[in-house]
Design brief:
heterodimer, A: 161 residues, alpha+beta, two-stranded antiparallel ribbon, 6 strands, extended, B: 384 residues, alpha/beta, 7-stranded mixed sheet, 3-stranded antiparallel sheet, 12 strands, 42% helix, 13% strand, globular
Chain lengths: 161, 384
């Protein structure tokens, strides 16, 4: 992957000046490259990774993985139905899968109730949806490469030769 | 107790007092650490846990388990086109530190002189002394970017000179050598009939060109003791595992001493090392990319705040001059620690000729480095 992307993927707050310093190029060139990545839809947006397990005030969200079996529509295949599904704001991810089912839909809600409600009232009744299997996530250990716990303290001696 | 005159003769580490100062202080940003900030890759840690579960808790062959020696042999052939017989030309040691000790003990006769380029890693001189030899320090000039030259070697040789130590990429300067530069050094080694002890522990962390292993140079394999290990390439410092390769006779001699002192390297570390060689390339590559970025960041940052600094070719150290501050290395380090809570190592830890320099380790996250640079800048402004 492009080095600028690699740096930003790790820390989106790295400034163009710093990226320039790390890669031995100019801030101007880095800014230009980032602009282009944004324009081309390679950089979609910049966001913060929040460990919701630790957010006390609002009770953490419930998340479920839903296997969806569908009958593909003539000419448009799976994409048509996938699009109808992923437009719902409750859906945080949607993948076309190989194997015994077709779409894997990740749904987030306030509680089990909202999620099952979404499945029974929105997802399951859709035309061409042949069946769903819902798996609730009980505990998240790691997400998108990040281990969900407090950063470990540096165990090294503070100075050594 | 009445202690050994020889041990008494070794100069005490003047740096220890400063180290205690750092260790006694809280909330320090440390750029003074000589080991990776990465933890050992999980596959390697997992392999060690598995080996314990399987009951690998015994001694091994003195030389180290044959499978690991074979893996090392294969790795060196693959990476450097360097052939060592796993049977009798490779010895597994407790880190390069032990390997170095064995190497000097295996070659020194009382009174032999060993050339030690300065800046040097702290243990070289004392270990040569303990082995009954005389370290002869070759002061390398900052004007030449702290690089050892063939002329330097010639100037310091006499008929008692037996060997030379070369550590590249270098701790503390980060300096390394191209194949061409090493060839020039090799010529002098041959001319003066010297043994080369080549400490290449940072070899995998070379950023601008391919690392050349010293024994791959023409006619050098027979006169080189090649030292390497897992600490830096695979972030395995605490495992204490390294190796030495060389001609049969010297490896046999080193094995003899090793069997009476260490007996063997810890078996769990040997098992972990096997996994590192087998599946560690990706982790090494990722760490190297990260270090390279930090190098660019730190070097340009230091130059910007007014500490002039060569771009080091490898390892994870920068060795800037602090002469512009008007302070000595030790004063600089102490004041910076006191005023801004940034720790680094005064250059004089690596030889008296390194006065006016400090070692900065970039084995630390970019955010730490960023903050440290801000503090150093503030510190320098306050000095004016």
């Amino acid at each position: 992957m492009n080095e600028i992307l690699e740096i930003l993927e790790k820390d989106a707050r790295t400034t163009p000046e710093e990226i320039a310093r790390m890669t031995g190029s100019s801030a101007q060139a880095v800014k230009k490259a980032i602009k282009k990545f944004e324009k081309d839809g390679i950089i979609l947006k910049y966001k913060t990774v929040i460990n919701k397990e630790f957010v006390k005030d609002e009770g953490s969200d419930v998340r479920a993985l839903i296997e969806v079996k569908i009958t593909p529509k003539k000419d448009v295949g799976f994409n048509y139905l996938a699009e109808r599904i992923y437009q719902f704001p409750e859906v945080s991810a949607c993948y076309l899968m190989s194997g015994t089912y077709d779409l894997l839909v990740v749904v987030e809600g306030k509680n089990i109730h909202t999620v099952s409600n979404f499945v029974s009232s929105k997802l399951a009744p859709m035309e061409n949806v042949r069946g769903t299997v819902t798996h609730f996530i009980l505990k998240k250990y790691k997400e998108d490469g990040d281990i969900l716990r407090q950063a470990k303290r540096d165990k090294r001696e503070a100075i050594s030769l | 107790m009445r202690t050994s005159k020889l041990a008494e003769h070794i100069p005490p580490s003047g740096i220890r007092v400063f180290f205690d100062l750092v260790l006694g202080m809280k909330d320090v940003i440390s750029l003074g650490i000589g080991e990776p900030d990465f933890v050992t890759p999980w596959n390697v840690r997992e392999a060690a846990i598995f080996s314990l579960e399987e009951g690998y808790t015994s001694y091994t062959s003195n030389k180290g388990i044959i499978e690991l020696r074979k893996d090392i042999s294969g790795y060196l052939e693959n990476k450097h086109d360097l052939k060592y017989d796993p049977e009798d030309e490779i010895l597994i040691t407790v880190g390069v530190s032990e390997a170095f000790d064995l190497a000097v003990r295996a070659i020194i006769n009382r009174g032999d002189k060993i050339l030690v380029p300065e800046p040097y890693y702290v243990s070289y001189g004392p270990l040569v002394t303990l082995a009954g030899g005389h370290p002869v320090f070759i002061r390398q000039s900052p004007e030449n970017g702290f690089k050892l030259t063939p002329e330097d070697i010639l100037k310091h040789c006499d008929n008692k000179t037996k060997a030379i130590i070369l550590n590249y990429p270098n701790n503390p300067t980060g300096v390394s050598y191209t194949r061409k530069e090493l060839n020039a050094i090799a010529k002098v080694i041959l001319k003066k009939n010297l043994i080369m002890i080549s400490d290449e522990i940072y070899g995998d962390l070379t950023y601008d060109f391919d690392h050349t292993a010293f024994p791959t140079l023409a006619k050098m394999k027979d006169r080189t003791i090649y030292l390497n290990g897992f600490s830096k390439s695979y972030a395995m410092t605490g495992w204490r595992i390294g190796y030495a390769c060389g001609p049969k006779d010297v490896i046999a001699m080193m094995t003899k001493i090793h069997q009476y002192t260490m007996l063997c390297a810890p078996i769990m570390s040997q098992m972990a090392a096997r996994e590192a060689l087998k599946n560690g390339e990706r982790s090494t590559r990722d760490m190297k990319r990260e270090y390279k970025r930090r190098r660019e960041y730190v070097v340009s940052g230091l130059n910007e705040v007014g500490l002039s600094c060569h771009k080091p070719e490898g390892a994870f150290y920068a060795f800037p001059s602090i002469k512009s501050s008007g302070l000595s290395s030790m004063e600089f380090a102490k004041k910076l620690l006191d005023k801004e809570r940034v720790a680094l190592v005064p250059g004089t830890a690596f030889g008296p000729s390194c006065e006016g320099y400090v070692r900065i380790s970039y084995a630390s996250s970019i955010s730490n480095i960023r903050e440290a640079l801000v503090r150093i800048k503030r510190f320098l402004c306050a000095q004016k």
